[in-house]
Every structure is written in C-alpha cells, then in structure tokens.
Specification:
Blueprint: H1 5-33, H2 75-86, H3 89-92, H4 97-111, H5 117-129, H6 134-179, H7 185-194, H8 198-217, H9 222-236, H10 244-262, H11 290-311, H12 321-339, H13 344-355, H14 365-368, H15 384-395, H16 404-443, H17 447-475, H18 479-495, H19 499-516
Length: about 550
C-alpha cells in the first residue's frame, strides 16, 4: 500500500510545498542579473517561433498504419522499398497461395505496417473472389498501397520472375528435345519413365492446398461447407469444359447471394463481417482514378471478345501455322485467366483439357472448329507426361502456380510460346486488380458487399476440390501411384518436408516402382514391358 499513487503523493507533498520559497527566490535572482533593455547590453536572443508544420494531403496517421515516415518519404524511396521487399520473395515464396499470403501478412502488416489487418483481409477476399492468381494479385495490391501503380508492377515482376524464368527455360528444353519435331525417341521414353511419380506427387500438393484453403474459407460452418460442396458437385457433372467458366461464375454469385440472405438471421450475426470498416483512405495514393478503372475493365472484356472471335474465325488468313498456334495459345490462356475463380488449382483441369486432350467429346477443337486457329495444333499441344512434369516443376518453385503457363507455352512453341502463355494467363488478373482497386474504397463500406465476398470465397473452394478429383483420376491409375501420392502428401503435411524435396524423392520412388512393377501394372506408360518384371499380359489388350 506504500507504493500506491495516493501514498506517494501524501509523502512527497509536504517536501514540495517547503521547497517553493527557495525556488521562487532563485528565479528572482536570475531576472535581476539580466541587463535592462536600455542599458546598451545585448539582449538575450529569443529563438524565433517555429513555423507550423506543413500538413500533407494524406496524413500518415490516417493511412492505415503506414508508418510515421511512410507518406513523407519521397516516391523514389517508397518505390525502392517495394523492390527491396519483393526481390527476396521471388526466391523464397514456396508453399502455394496460403503460404504467400501468410508471408505478406507478416512482412507488410506486422513488420512494415503498410496496411492494417482489416484492409489486408479485405484485399485477400477481393483477390479470391476475382479471376486470376490470388497471391499475385495480393502482391500487386501491396505494391500499389505503398508506391502507386508503378509499385504494383514492380511487386508483380519481382514476385514472379524466378518461377517464370525456370519454367520458361525448362519448357524450352522439353520443346527442343522431347516435344518438338527434332525430339529424340530414346530421350522421350526415358523421360516418360522418370516422371511416372511426379504426377501423383504434384496432385498431392493440390489436395493439401484444398484442405488448407477449405479450413481458411469454410472451417466447420455448415452454410459455407454446403456452398463449397454444391459447387464441387455441379462442377464435377458438367458435360463440357467449354461452359465451365460461365457455370463457375454463376455458382459463385449464387453463393454470395445465399450468404447475404443467411446474414439476416439473428443467430448468424456473429459469422459475417457486419461491422463497417474504418476508412483511412489509403488507396487514394495509388494514382488510379475510377475513369482508369472503367477503361481497364473495358480493355479486359474487349480482349476476350476480340481474341475469341479471331481464334474461332475461318475467314482469318494466318501467315503460318506457327503464328496461328501462337495466337490460339494466347486466346486459350487469356480466356482461362479472365473466367476462372479460385486460383491455380482450379485452372488445372481446364489446362489439361486445352493442352493434352483437345479432341474430347465436347469440345473437339480439331473437328468442331476445323479451319480456325484453335484447330491448328492438333489434338495434343503437349503430352500428358510433359503436363505432369511441368505441374510438378511449377509446384516445386517459388511464386504462383500460374507460372505453369510459361512451361506449357514453351513446351508447345518454344521461348515465344512461353512468354505469350505467361502474358495470356496472368494479364486478366493483373488488369482486373488494377481496375477494381479504385472502386473498392466505396464498395468496402457496404455490408452486403463484404458478406457476399464470404459466400463467393466459400463457393470457389468447391472448385479446388473439383480439381482434386479430376486430376486424381487423370494421373493416379495404379495402386503404386496412389502410394506415391500419399507418401508425398504425408511428407509435406505431416513431417514438414519441403515440396521440392518431396517431389524429387517421389520421382525417384516412382521410377523404382515402375521398374519393379510394384503396385502395377503400369500399362499407361509407353515403355511398359521394357523391364523383366513387367507383366504385360495383365494389360487390356495385352501388350506385345
């Protein structure tokens, strides 16, 4: 009790009162020593009053915890900060979109304080509800919030360039030696044996992503889980991938409308973000106006219509089959990039249909669109083995899974194809994040918008599980391949093994299983029968 404020004041008050006379006398003596103003002695200089500080148009305190010197720093310095922040991420961003978002949260909210928690979560929901790669769109948003539109471009390039460069280089090697006209048959056969285990290992990472994203977006909430399940079921029974993109969009909108209705129930009030966010006007600094936003939306939509019309037109005369294939490649990937929701895992089945199985029942590009650019490349732009290998490669590299487009384009048409493929799949999402950012400040204040995003995110998770099912039946055809998939998943999720290491080990394990015919027969592999233990008589029809 002797240390309470009242006790301390009671002890010190008499001492303070007793010292007041001596303090007053000391002040009187100091004034007497100063010369009078008319004595000719220099008067004491009085420091001029400091001018009032200039108030910047954007107050740092109202900028979402951007830091005391965040907005006062020169633009070039802030742009350099973006470059310094994202350059190492280009080498370290392993683990898929959720790992990337966790990295952004730690770097830009907890450490650098470029954004607050509320705005970060809003931008994450916006990215998941928009077409395109969520983590790349988040990277652009972080750059824009710090250094405007140019900062967004810098963050995009530095975040993606490592994975893009490796996929482009490896895809070009595959095109030169394995997929192109000069491919060596012996090298092709060896390659197909080596990648037997890579497909199942890559699929295991898609299952892990589905599990992680599902917990994040749905948890155990029955309404959200139901939305994801219904979307998955509908997507699985669709007869054609040609209409899948439109159905996916409709399902996501329905999911958003359902959560709006559900949020009106009294028992569900605590489930949805009903509290209006604090408005700090941070995004006013990004240098994008609503006019720019409308223009970018128009450009994105116009590119879809124009490229689709030209690619399916029989009256367009192409200078060469290569140029027709290059244009068809851009149109195909741009169409996916602007219509697919839910990230890279969702786009995988469509990529497989467009690159590996182009002569399916619906559509059959060669027969149904004969004489057009999309029919030039034949029934198979890349082999199933190259597709599985490229998927495993993209998942073992830093950066987004959408870098897979650079591999596929390069494996199909060389370096030009890799660059065109990368631009085709990425550009819609980048255009749209720039387009919607100017409108988000007003939209985020509306409760129904925030609630609708919750339902759209839950529905998009169903598309990720759809990708799991479709890819499993495509790349896991024997019990041995199922074992490889489970081993890779257990190593990464259960024991914390890095995905690149797990995929490399799975490739070695897959080749051993193939050579020993463990968990076989591997009748779907072209070289099955080249080893003594292979039981070709079990294949239907039997291999000779």
């Amino acid at each position: 009790t002797n240390r309470t404020p009242a006790a301390i004041l009671q002890r010190r008050l008499p001492e303070t009162v007793a010292a007041l006379p001596s303090l007053k006398q000391s002040m009187t003596d100091q004034q007497a020593e100063q010369p009078p103003s008319g004595s000719g002695a220099p008067a004491a200089r009085v420091a001029p009053e400091a001018p009032p500080p200039q108030v910047d148009q954007f107050d740092p305190e109202s900028a979402g915890a951007a830091g005391k010197d965040g907005l006062d720093a020169p633009y070039a310095e802030r742009l350099l900060e973006v470059a310094k922040a994202f350059f190492p991420m280009g080498f370290l961003a392993f683990g898929g979109p959720q790992a990337h978002i966790a990295m952004f949260l730690k770097a830009f909210v907890e450490e650098k304080k470029w954004l607050d928690d509320a705005r970060f979560m809003e931008l994450m929901s916006l990215g998941q509800a928009m077409p395109g790669p969520t983590s790349t769109q988040m990277a652009c948003a972080m750059g824009i919030s710090r250094a405007g539109w140019l900062g967004g471009l810098v963050s995009f390039v530095l975040f993606d360039w490592v994975g893009f460069a490796v996929c482009l280089a490896v895809g070009t090697i595959v095109y030169t030696f394995l997929e192109g006209e000069s491919a060596d048959p012996t090298a092709v056969n060896t390659y197909r044996e080596v990648v037997v285990g890579m497909g199942p290992a890559a699929i295991s990472q898609v299952f892990i992503a589905a599990y992680t994203l599902g917990n994040k977006a749905c948890g155990t909430d029955k309404v959200k889980v139901g939305l994801a399940a219904v979307t998955c079921f509908v997507a699985l029974v669709l007869p054609s991938s040609f209409i899948a993109a439109f159905v996916y969009l409709a399902m996501m909108i329905c999911g958003g409308l359902i959560t709006i209705v559900d949020s009106q129930r009294e028992s569900r009030k605590g489930v949805y973000p009903l509290k209006p966010p604090e408005d700090h006007d941070m995004l006013r600094r990004m240098g994008l106006t609503p006019v720019v936003g409308y223009t970018l939306v128009f450009v994105a939509a116009a590119l879809l219509v124009v490229t689709w019309s030209l690619a399916l037109s029989t009256s367009v005369q192409w200078s060469s089959p290569y140029s027709a294939n290059l244009f068809a490649l851009f149109q195909t990937l741009y169409k996916m990039g602007i219509t697919i929701y839910g990230g890279g895992q969702v786009v995988l089945p469509m990529l497989e249909n467009e690159f590996v199985d182009r002569c399916g029942d619906s559509p059959n590009y060669v027969d149904d669109f004969a004489g057009t650019a999309v029919a030039q490349g034949g029934c198979e732009w890349v082999s199933a083995e190259s597709f599985a290998f490229g998927l495993a490669l993209a998942q073992s590299l830093p950066g987004p899974l959408f870098n897979f487009s650079a591999f596929l384009g390069a494996a199909f048409l060389g370096v030009p194809g890799g660059i065109v493929g990368f631009i085709g799949l990425f550009s819609p999402g980048i255009l749209l994040i720039y387009a919607f950012m100017p409108f988000w400040e007003k939209a985020r204040k509306k409760t129904w918008v925030r609630v609708m995003l919750v339902g759209m995110n839950a529905s998009s998770i169903g598309l990720v599980f759809t990708a799991c099912v479709k890819l499993y039946f495509k790349y896991v055809k024997t019990s041995g391949e199922a074992v490889i998939m489970l081993v890779a998943a257990l190593a990464v999720k259960g024991y914390g093994v890095k995905a690149p290491i797990a995929i490399i080990v799975s490739a070695a394990l897959g080749w051993c299983f193939f050579a020993l015919d463990a968990g076989g027969p591997y009748c779907h592999v072209v070289t099955y029968g080249n080893y003594p233990l292979h039981r070709t008589e079990l294949c239907v029809p039997p291999l000779k």
